[in-house]
Write a structure and sequence with these properties.
The complex is a heterodimer.
Chain A: E1 6-17, E2 20-32, E3 37-41, H1 48-55, E4 63-72, E5 75-76, H2 82-88, E6 93-96, H3 100-103, H4 110-119, H5 126-139, H6 145-148, H7 158-170, E7 176-180, H8 188-205, E8 208-213, H9 216-222, E9 225-230, E10 233-239, H10 240-245, H11 250-258, E11 305-308, E12 311-314
Parallel strand pairs in A: 3-8, 3-9, 6-7, 7-8
Antiparallel strand pairs in A: 1-2, 1-4, 4-5, 9-10, 10-12, 11-12
Helix pairs in contact in A: 4-5, 5-7
Chain B: E1 3-14, H1 20-27, E2 37-48, E3 52-56, H2 63-70, E4 78-83, E5 86-87, E6 89-90, E7 93-94, E8 99-102, H3 106-109, H4 116-126, H5 135-145, H6 162-174, E9 180-184, H7 192-209, E10 212-217, H8 220-226, E11 229-234, E12 237-243, H9 244-249, H10 254-262, H11 303-307, E13 313-314, E14 320-321
Parallel strand pairs in B: 3-10, 3-11, 8-9, 9-10
Antiparallel strand pairs in B: 1-2, 1-4, 4-5, 6-7, 11-12, 12-14, 13-14
Helix pairs in contact in B: 4-5, 4-6, 6-7
Classes of the chains: A alpha/beta, B alpha/beta.
């Protein structure tokens, strides 16, 4: 077994707000092999996006990484000087954000901003940079790419803009791409196109992918392994098929049962009662216990790791894996 | 059951507002091109009492514009919406309180400066459905019915979560004792676990009150779950309409079929997933293609499709499809 590409240990990112300390990411550990696709799912406020931002050192005050370690190819990224981080970011680790409208510069042509991204890391001529940009745009399925380099972001549709963002992430052939809800704002037909392209690109280039989403179905179609986050922690992890077939954690089970696809049309859905806890006042024990059908007095203490081959769940009373 | 709600040849155009420069140039005799956006074109359907019609389509297909016309918020450019045979709008004004709406974004649709108790009782008071003295009890009853503590009537919208706000929006709409509820993406901005709570609430109240609903969503799974019949829209027109079970099992329009294929399904096995995306993108409603609007993206398109727009033709199974070359037989689909 070779060393993992990315190794995250006990990562803690907290937001020091006037109302108190919001523990957005509170002890997250996982590792990722080269070329692997990891799906990170959770609901609003579960800490999935902050986890992604933390990996790239993109957490702004009042947020701060207060503990833990992120090792990328053996190099520690937590506490790395900004200069060194910038040399890494975009070149070896790239990020794709949810809203390409907000991440593309509206006053620069697509070609100009992609050339900037090329030349941020490599000393090449403007012509060579534009040629590189045209090549990756073609790879993400933009027809007639060389001519469209002179177009501005507003001349592209939402799906096309997200393709530009993905192409920009691919410019330097990074070893890892972190994608935060990249298809959430898109229509299903465009989402299907982008998922198909991402899957093919990751396979062809050997790029590892962390795909952050609230949508279990999308993640299940793309990822090899699944991480489920709740209230700042990864409560369950394992191979996608195994986790979704027979979840160990009651929260994962509850999420699955909430989907309309899991009930007959018109029948009541099996809902999870209540709402997610405030990150300002997380309980000492299991944060899901107040909503959990299996909760017992034991859940007031921190949940132990229940392990099965290749799988893990933080739970006092894990469900039995049938398969 | 009898038809309660009817849309007859509904059309809505939006004319672009000309800039001052263009207007002056026009006065001076220049030819200013003024292309209207055809958001909804010639849409007709009927909804029976107690039925939920689901309306699906992608961004820009006109589903929200259609919903707003049905709700009596937006006057049609042509055609009419009729409730028990009477038009719901006359002279640009809504004529009935029997149709109410729940919008997507409860952040935007609730008045942030008004206590939610006032928000719920305002309509019924204004229309004389309740007396002022009865308002507190009325509000308490509705809050309880949507699963909120009656003690929260004095709070403001910002003190609630998204799911709770959507409960308030549902209470406000139902407090008017409507016969028809138009829901425009009511669960789109909610997390999965909260979405399930709101869908359950919707189903419970719909059945308890015998409501007739138009349920608009881009989420095919949600629409399947709540709808008896489903209409699929593409570029301002209904391309297929019929019983939900039939449409999902045997989609006949190539667009319906492609749309259903695009939805990622939960993968419970370890086999790789094959994607079959629709080629191309939605054309602009400023200049929809000639003939069938879907033909540039359709794998079955022929010369006929480029030339002639297919009419929405009813079949024997209570469904109708607008296609020259509809599919026959069930879609070769993976299990959901």
């Amino acid at each position: 077994m070779t060393a993992p590409l990315l190794e995250v240990r006990e990562l803690r990112t907290h937001f020091l707000t006037r109302a108190g300390v919001a523990r957005a990411v509170d002890g997250v550990s996982f590792s990722l092999a080269a070329g692997e696709i990891l799906g990170l799912v959770g609901e609003s406020g579960s800490g999935k996006s902050v986890t992604g931002f933390s990996l790239l050192g993109l957490v702004d005050p009042p947020g701060r990484i207060v503990g833990g370690s992120v090792r990328f190819r053996g190099q520690e990224l937590v506490g790395l000087p900004e200069r060194a981080m910038r040399a890494l970011r975009g070149r070896h680790i790239a990020m794709v954000f949810q809203d390409p409208q907000a991440t593309l510069n509206p006053v620069l042509s697509i070609g100009a901003q992609m050339a900037l991204a090329v030349r941020a890391h490599e000393r090449v001529s403007d012509r060579a940079a534009r040629a590189r940009a045209a090549a990756v745009l073609t790879r993400v399925g933009i027809p007639d790419a060389a001519r469209r380099l002179d177009a501005y972001p507003h001349e592209f549709s939402g799906g096309m803009r997200q393709r530009v963002a993905i192409a920009t992430a691919l410019l330097h052939g990074p070893a890892l791409i972190v994608a935060d809800e990249p298809t959430t704002a898109l229509d299903v037909s465009i989402q299907a196109q982008i998922l198909a392209e991402m899957k093919a690109l990751a396979a062809a280039s050997g790029t590892a992918l962390i795909w952050i989403s609230h949508d279990l179905a999308t993640v299940s179609a793309l990822a090899d392994r699944l991480l489920v986050m709740y209230a700042g922690r990864i409560v369950e992890s394992g191979p996608v098929g195994a986790v979704l077939r027979a979840p160990l954690h009651p929260y994962t089970r509850g999420l699955l049962d909430s989907l309309p696809a899991m009930a007959a049309p018109g029948q009541r859905l099996r809902q999870i009662p209540g709402t997610a806890p405030s990150l300002l006042a997380l309980p000492e024990g299991c944060a899901f216990a107040p909503r959990c059908p299996r909760a017992s007095p034991a859940c007031a203490s921190p949940p132990p790791a229940a392990t099965r081959p290749g799988r893990l769940a933080l739970c006092h009373h894990p469900l039995e894996a049938a398969a | 059951m009898s038809v309660i709600l009817e849309a007859r040849s509904l059309t809505r155009r939006f004319d672009p507002r000309l800039s001052l420069g263009d207007r002056i140039a026009g006065l001076l005799g220049a030819r200013i091109e003024k292309r209207p956006v055809r958001a909804v074109t010639d849409v007709s359907f009927a909804v029976r009492k107690g039925e939920t019609l689901g309306l699906v389509g992608e961004s820009g297909c006109g589903k929200s514009t259609l919903g707003r016309m049905v709700a009596g918020i937006l006057p049609p450019s042509a055609g009419s919406v009729r409730l028990d045979g009477a038009p719901v709008m006359r002279g640009g004004r809504k004529t009935t309180t029997r149709i109410q709406t729940v919008f997507q974004d409860p952040f935007a649709s609730l008045n942030p400066r008004r206590r939610i108790g006032e928000t719920i009782s305002e309509g019924p008071l204004a229309h004389g459905l309740i007396r002022r003295a009865d308002a507190p009890a009325f509000v308490a009853e509705w809050l309880a019915r949507v699963g909120l503590d009656p003690a929260v009537a004095g709070r403001f919208p910002h003190q609630f979560s998204g799911g709770q706000r959507q409960r308030v929006a549902i209470a406000r709409a139902l407090a008017m004792k409507p016969d028809i509820l138009v829901c425009d993406e009511p669960v789109a901005s909610l997390d999965v676990s909260i979405q399930a709570q709101i869908l359950n609430l919707f189903l419970d109240l719909r059945d308890a009150l015998g409501l007739t609903c138009l349920f608009i969503s881009h989420d095919l799974g949600v629409v399947r779950h709540v709808s008896h019949r489903v209409a699929i829209m593409y570029l301002g027109r209904i391309v297929e309409i019929g019983p939900a079970a039939r449409i999902y099992a045997v989609p006949r329009h190539p667009y319906t079929r492609a749309l259903l294929d695009s939805v990622p399904r939960l993968r419970l096995d370890d086999a790789a997933v094959a994607f079959t995306p629709i080629a191309g993108e939605l054309p602009s409603p400023l200049s929809p293609p000639e003939g069938c609007a879907f033909h540039p993206r359709c794998p079955r398109a022929t010369e006929l499709c480029r030339r002639e727009r297919p009419a929405l033709a009813a079949g024997e199974d209570g469904a109708a499809v607008a296609c020259h070359h509809p599919h026959e037989g069930a879609a070769p689909r993976r299990a959901p």
